[in-house]
Design a protein that fits this description.
Blueprint (H helix, E strand, L loop, with lengths): L1 E10 L2 E11 L4 E5 L6 H8 L7 E6 L5 E4 L11 H6 L3 H19 L6 H19 L5 H11 L16 H15 L3 E5 L7 H13 L3 E5 L3 H7 L2 E6 L2 E5 L3 H36 L6 H13 L28 E10 L2 E11 L4 E6 L5 H8 L6 E6 L5 E4 L13 H6 L10 H7 L16 H13 L5 E5 L7 H13 L3 E5 L3 H4 L5 E6 L2 E6 L2 H13 L16 H8 L5 H39 L2 H4 L2 H32 L1
Parallel strand pairs: 3-7, 3-8, 5-6, 6-7, 12-16, 12-17, 14-15, 15-16
Antiparallel strand pairs: 1-2, 1-4, 8-9, 10-11, 10-13, 17-18
Helix pairs in contact: 3-4, 4-21, 5-6, 9-10, 19-21
Length: 647
């Protein structure tokens, strides 16, 4: 579908990457990985045709279409959510208008036997069938399903887009892109503004309905669940692994070990040759051998070892005074904007040393509660900070608040105090801002580089209570791992607002779920919370709606409500049900494959001159397409039931 040949990109005289060639095939799910600044976003822009390479070509086959979601874009303020998302179907709207005009003309005319009237009837029939084949009769339902999957409520559909935050408006752009169904989807950090439920919906969409996908993401779980191939940009080259991310990490480590061994052997060979040359350079009897060694040395091609960031990004939060036993106590805390209640009657206590996560859909109050803690907005009820609490706060927009005209060094120099000022270069080097990078202006830094710089600012002052609002947005995999390790070793109290399951896993011991105006406490890690949430949804109709008086849910209560251990007969019945559902899913998948093959055969015939005017072909295609949509919907239902049974 897309062929990249001998690609080279230079900024100034320095090549970002060169001699890059690969092919994007139908049904490829590609993760594009590499450290920040390696050129991932640049690669996507080149494939999308928005940036020209220094050398090389990108060829898109036939009439294949490409859709691109950048990290940052200019968004419209002139439409409602439904109207903005509906622009994905502008071609269908134009067809509808044309059909309406033809229909009116057919009604108004009376020359029923004329040749032009019969031609109009034939054209109307042909275009009507084409309109149905393209989903003209049900695109509104698909639009609503997509918006709902990305977290919008039905009450949001007719609200103006200007009423939504930047994160929600990015979701609208993502919805438009998915609804267009391009042959190749290019997604640059698509999960940055999504909550956990929306990420899971997007995973399912990309796995079942997308064609080819190339994505850049810092969410390791998302990448593993979606992709089946990994392209790594490293040392100015692209390495192609036909495996998902976790397998790529293992294979890359093996490859680097082989490179290191080859590199060490080559260095030993070079050292031996140089030693021989130096020992016998001035002995006439060895002149021939010396010249031979010199030529041999000149012919050696240096072995490159894949870059591993030996700049060692090691975060170490400085020690601070000990806080009181209870750094944060909320009692009857409420926040409302007019009649809109964000949350009410919130009661919980965070103990010293606890690491907790705030999770929930966007707009449910996670960042709002953080702002209450920071004293940035007024609230009702009680919120008390403990004795000696010193807060270090990393906000979602922290990176954007940096002064773009300052250099990296000056940014840190202005906040550093005392002896730390003597170590600024060392600190910057540890965060991959070594050498000339420290003299870059902030305005030319990538999103990930800005986030690292903002994190350095946070680390320069001792704190005992960390509040991190989406700290991993734009951080690469390695940076996230090191940040996670530093937070794990931090001896103070931590609140993390995040949708990144992989980052939260093994880091937090308690989860606060925001939703429906209440905050529920769940003991255990993030995957314990997700598992309980999936189980809860099976009995949703039978369980009472949580009230403010039942804000706290503990593990012991969970177990008490779950009943006793399953009996042998119950386990046996459950396994039988799972096997039955697995067969059902396999049957649907086989049927989907058959229908797709039939559709492909029809589409091949329709693309010929003879088939283009065959109305029967279009009718059969529309019927098969409708049947395929029905089977896919049934498959999704069966798959969901299987996943719930397995959990």
């Amino acid at each position: 579908m897309v062929s990249v040949e001998n690609l080279k990109v230079e900024f100034g005289a320095v090549p970002l990457f060169q001699d890059v060639s690969y092919v994007i095939n139908d049904k490829d799910r590609i993760a594009l990985v590499g450290k920040n600044g390696a050129g991932k976003s640049t690669m996507l822009k080149i494939i999308a045709g928005l940036q020209q390479p220094t050398e090389g070509t990108v060829a898109v086959s036939g009439d294949s279409t490409i859709g691109y979601l950048p990290q940052v874009m200019v968004l419209s303020d002139e439409h409602t959510v439904r109207e903005e998302a509906g622009q994905a179907f502008s071609h269908i709207s134009r067809m509808q208008e044309a059909l309406d005009r033809m229909n009116k003309e057919l009604v108004d005319r009376t020359d029923y036997e004329s040749e032009s009237y019969l031609e109009l009837v034939e054209k109307f029939s042909r275009e009507s069938e084409r309109f149905q084949m393209m989903g003209g009769m049900n695109y509104q339902a698909e639009l609503e399903r997509t918006l709902t999957g990305l977290g919008f409520g039905r009450e949001d559909f007719d609200r103006p887009t200007r009423e939504f935050s930047g994160g929600w408006r990015m979701r609208i752009e993502l919805a438009k892109l998915l609804l267009r169904r391009p042959d190749v989807l290019l997604l640059d950090e698509p999960t940055n503004h999504l909550d956990i439920e929306s990420i899971q919906w997007l995973e399912n969409f990309l796995a079942t309905k997308a064609n080819a996908v190339v994505l850049v993401s810092h969410d390791r779980a998302f990448i593993n669940n979606v992709t089946n191939r990994t392209l790594e940009i490293s040392c100015g080259r692209v390495y192609d692994y036909k495996v998902k991310y976790d397998d790529y990490v293992r294979l890359r480590a093996e490859r680097r070990e082989q490179q290191l061994r080859a590199y060490e052997n080559q260095q030993k060979e070079i050292a031996d040759i140089k030693d021989f040359i130096e020992r016998f350079r001035y002995k006439p009897t060895k002149a021939v051998q010396v010249q031979s060694r010199i030529k041999q040395l000149e012919k050696i091609v240096p072995i490159e070892v894949d870059e591993v960031d030996n700049s060692s990004l090691r975060l170490k939060f400085p020690s601070a005074v000990r806080s009181g036993d209870y750094p944060l106590i909320c009692s009857g805390l409420s926040k409302a904007y007019g009649e809109h209640v964000v949350f009410h009657d919130v009661d919980f206590t965070i103990k010293r040393g606890e690491k907790v996560a705030f999770v929930g859909k966007n707009g449910e109050g996670k960042s709002t509660l953080v702002k209450c803690i920071m004293g940035e907005i007024p609230f009702e009820g009680g919120l008390k900070l403990g004795h000696n609490v010193q807060i270090g706060y990393f906000a979602q927009n922290q990176a954007q608040m940096l002064d773009g005209e300052l250099t990296v060094f000056d940014t840190i120099d202005r906040v550093a105090k005392g002896d730390v000022r003597l170590k600024i270069r060392d600190i910057l080097g540890a965060f991959m801002f070594g050498g000339e990078a420290s003299d870059k202006k902030v305005k030319v830094l990538s999103g990930g580089e800005r986030s690292r710089l903002a994190m350095i600012k946070l680390l320069l002052e001792p704190v005992n209570f960390l509040i991190l609002d989406e700290p991993t947005n734009h951080l690469d995999m390695r940076s996230k791992d090191v940040l996670k390790e530093a937070i794990r070793d931090f001896d103070g109290t931590v609140v993390v607002v995040s949708h990144d399951r992989e980052f939260l896993d093994g880091l937090v011991s308690k989860v606060y779920e925001f939703g429906g105006g209440v905050v529920r406490e769940h003991l255990g890690g993030i995957y314990d919370f997700l598992q309980r949430k999936n189980i809860d949804s099976l009995n949703e109709l039978q369980r009472p709606v949580p009230t403010a008086s039942s804000v706290t849910v503990t593990v012991s209560e969970d177990k008490a409500s779950g009943g006793s251990r399953q009996t042998y007969e119950q386990q046996k019945e459950r396994q039988k049900k799972i096997r039955r559902l697995e067969k059902t899913v396999e049957g649907y998948e086989a049927r989907i494959g058959e229908l797709e093959a039939e559709l492909k055969t029809l589409e091949d015939r329709m693309s010929t001159p003879e088939g283009a005017g065959d109305a029967l072909l279009y009718e059969n295609h529309g019927r098969l397409k409708g049947k395929l949509d029905e089977v896919v919907a049934e498959w999704e239902t069966a798959l969901l039931e299987l996943e719930e049974s397995q959990s």
